[in-house]
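From the pipeline queue, job 12 of 40. The input is one protein chain; the requested action is below.

Action: predict structure.
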Amino acid sequence: MTDASFGLPAAFTPQQKALSTLMVDYWTGYAQRGDPNHRDGPRWSRHDPARANALRLAPGPGGVTPIDIRAAHQCGFWDEVADAG
């Protein structure tokens, strides 16, 4: 069964619902105050290109956590491939 308006699954897991609520809270905080952080969620730190920091947003325990986006996406490997070409 799907949601008629978007074609998405009508039933989401509790972890997916919790992630959805958290993401709405981040967007609401950002729209209201220019800062997505709130007391109920992991801190979303300001982007720093030198640190390549980001916040991973995934459902389930430990799904929302700070990451090094360059390491998470194996950018070092792709930089080497690009340089070799």
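Job complete. The first helix runs from residue 14 to 33.
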